[in-house]
């Protein structure tokens, strides 16, 4: 096996031996112990082709007990483990860096129960997000999370990354929506934090340790989610605006007018729209403008919702905040608008290592101001800089296409520029994607020493041998 990759040295873990494989075949049936290198390829490679591991084993448990037996064995034998859900992580967190044992939730995909009075759903960690939503739809509920990867990502992965997405503005993040969790710690111990109560202040809220810790503290096996009633009526609007100042003023007006029915506010800049046109063969439905806003309302009274939306549009047009717009109320037309936004990541993916992506959180007033200094400072290196994202949450996705293939050195140079500017604007270098592997090396710079020490102590307590997702989050 390789000892050093991506400037990281392989930890002092054992590598898989024949006896280990035989042992795993006793825990799982042999079909669920994958060792074929061709079959392993996609599990070793992350969605954006940024990190490629060299694991020679993938395990597919079906039950919590099996996860427990696997982790117990790995811990006793000092084998490193990489938990994997749908493998859509944006930061290489879901794939091994070296030869870690991949443990996938692929076959832990049962929805266990739904309380039809409260909308509390209990499911196994490997349920695909969209499948949970399809299950809930006829029962009148909705999953409170909507991300472009919904057809592939697993709820366990969503919890482990504290995924955000388009509806966060209305429903909040996973910390608020997850009522309970079952997780297995590194030594195989099963932790039952499966409360299904909205209020439960009995001691430390341990479930939160597993939300957003990206598989470094435990393996999530079950999730209990509070799902809101499914809104009966949705509207989407696609608006064209003159400049970013007007984008911000429109956002303020939107919140005032639409209040509780506002369920998404996304922004797209001109370079991104040109990219969408060229690479995804989709187009703005209203012609060309410097900025575009995509908004969604979700409510329970058609007339009331439409009235509110039209009052907002009337005022925004009259005051010159928006220059043009189109509104959709039919599901197919709404989806056509959303697909423009949802497909962006696919287009960028095609650029492989020439594309660098940054998921930043910024104060609203500086949300777009950060682009110009980044363009200037990366001149000569970058071909184009793009800005789009979940404006409603202050979350800007900044993509940079480089002139040349990215070497580690080049990536580090551009990272340094972006992170310096984000810090200067009092922002965060990860709004919703986490730290994963690619940002772990920056934690020393972005976190105060004592908070980082506390994180390391929590990690040591739950995973003394450091077998769970090494090289990720904190190193
Ligand atoms: P994986 O990618 O498999 O894993 C992610 C991390 O969680 C890894 O560190 C992994 O080790 C760990 N993990 C996975 N399962 C478990 C488990 N059961 N127990 C413990 N640890 C586990 N993210 C957003 O927040 N908002 C978006 O809008 C968004 N849009 C996206 C659009 C596209 C097209 C793509 C490709 C990605 C997008 N993402 C977005 C990123 C990604 O989809 C999310 O981070 C998602 O939550 C990952 O889920 P997953 O099942 O694919 O997890």
UniProtKB/TrEMBL annotation:
It comes from the Eukaryota. It is found in: Peroxisome. One of its GO terms (molecular function) is (R)-2-hydroxyglutarate dehydrogenase activity. GO terms for cellular component: mitochondrion; peroxisome. It is an enzyme of class 1 (oxidoreductase). The keyword Flavoprotein applies. Keywords: FAD, Flavoprotein, Oxidoreductase, Peroxisome. Its cofactor is FAD. It catalyses: (R)-malate + A = oxaloacetate + AH2. Gene3D superfamilies: 3.30.465.10, 3.30.70.2190, 3.30.70.2740, Uridine Diphospho-n-acetylenolpyruvylglucosamine Reductase, domain 2 (3.30.43.10), Vanillyl-alcohol Oxidase, Chain A, domain 4 (1.10.45.10). Residues 51-230 form the FAD-binding PCMH-type domain. Its EC number is 1.1.99.39. PROSITE patterns: FAD_PCMH. Belongs to the FAD-binding oxidoreductase/transferase type 4 family. PANTHER family: D-2-HYDROXYGLUTARATE DEHYDROGENASE, MITOCHONDRIAL (PTHR43716). Homodimer. Catalyzes the oxidation of D-2-hydroxyglutarate (D-2-HG) to alpha-ketoglutarate. Also catalyzes the oxidation of other D-2-hydroxyacids, such as D-malate (D-MAL) and D-lactate (D-LAC). Exhibits high activities towards D-2-HG and D-MAL but a very weak activity towards D-LAC. This is D-2-hydroxyglutarate dehydrogenase, mitochondrial. The lineage of its organism: Eukaryota, Metazoa, Ecdysozoa, Arthropoda, Hexapoda.
């Amino acid at each position: 096996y390789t000892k050093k990759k991506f400037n990281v040295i392989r930890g002092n873990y054992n590598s898989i031996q024949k006896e280990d494989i035989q042992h795993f075949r006793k825990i799982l049936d042999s079909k669920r112990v994958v060792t074929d290198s061709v079959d392993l390829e996609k599990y070793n490679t992350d969605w954006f082709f940024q990190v490629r591991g060299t694991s020679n084993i993938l395990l597919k448990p079906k039950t919590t007990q099996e996860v427990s037996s696997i982790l117990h064995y790995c811990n006793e034998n000092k084998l490193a483990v990489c938990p994997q859900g749908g493998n859509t992580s944006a930061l290489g967190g879901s794939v091994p860096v070296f030869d870690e044992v991949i443990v996938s939730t692929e076959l832990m995909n049962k929805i266990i129960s739904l309380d039809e009075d409260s909308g509390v759903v209990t499911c196994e960690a490997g349920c695909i997000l969209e499948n949970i939503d399809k299950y809930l739809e006829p029962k009148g509920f909705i999953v409170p999370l909507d991300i472009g990867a919904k057809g592939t990502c697993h709820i366990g992965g969503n919890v482990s990354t504290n995924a955000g997405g388009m509806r966060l503005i209305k429903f909040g993040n996973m910390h608020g929506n997850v009522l309970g969790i079952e997780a297995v710690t590194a030594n195989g111990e099963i932790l039952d934090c499966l409360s299904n109560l909205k209020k439960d202040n009995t001691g430390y809220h341990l479930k939160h340790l597993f939300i957003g810790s990206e598989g470094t503290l435990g393996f999530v096996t079950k999730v209990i989610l509070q799902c809101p009633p499914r809104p009966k009526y949705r509207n989407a609007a696609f608006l064209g605006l003159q400049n970013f100042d007007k984008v911000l003023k429109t956002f303020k007006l939107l919140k005032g007018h639409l209040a509780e029915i506002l369920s998404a506010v996304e922004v797209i800049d001109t370079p991104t729209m040109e990219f969408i046109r060229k690479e995804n063969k989709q187009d703005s439905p209203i012609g060309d403008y410097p900025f575009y806003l995509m908004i969604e309302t979700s409510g329970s009274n058609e007339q009331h919702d439409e009235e509110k939306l039209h009052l907002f549009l009337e005022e925004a047009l009259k005051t010159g905040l928006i220059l043009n717009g189109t509104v959709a109320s039919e599901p197919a037309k709404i989806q056509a608008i959303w697909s423009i936004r949802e497909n962006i990541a696919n287009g960028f993916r095609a650029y492989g290592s020439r594309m660098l992506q940054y998921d930043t959180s910024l104060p609203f007033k500086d949300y777009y101001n950060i682009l110009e200094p980044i363009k200037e400072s990366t001149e000569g290196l970058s071909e184009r800089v793009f800005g789009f994202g979940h404006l409603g949450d202050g979350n800007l996705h900044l993509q940079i296409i480089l002139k040349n293939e990215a070497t580690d050195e080049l990536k580090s140079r551009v990272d340094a520029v972006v992170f310096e500017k984000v810090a200067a604007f009092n922002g965060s270098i990860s709004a919703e994607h986490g730290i994963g592997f690619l940002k772990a090396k920056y934690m020393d710079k972005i976190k105060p020493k004592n908070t980082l020490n506390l994180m390391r102590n929590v990690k040591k307590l739950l995973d003394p041998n450091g077998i769970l997702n090494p090289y990720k989050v904190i190193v």
